[in-house]
Amino acid sequence: MISQPYHLYVERSDASKNMARYYVLSIEPNLFGDVCLLRKWGRIGTRGQMMVHHFRREEEAVRLFLDLLRQKRKRGYRPRPPMSM
Asked: Phi and psi for 82 in degrees, rounded to 5?
């Protein structure tokens, strides 16, 4: 059982380099009682790619989640600004 939700969506855009990327992280349980870290990434507006990591304990998944978050922040990924209406 996962103690709290872990979901993250970040983007990195640079018009001068024609770059518009997204990165999604989430920790979720699977049907067998293990914990999975799902990673999705790609160009904004595309389906992109996905990778799943399986763990026995939530703490291991959270550790990788935080490490990946640090790496992405260093590379310039930031949460998407809220849309104005």
From this structure: -65, 145
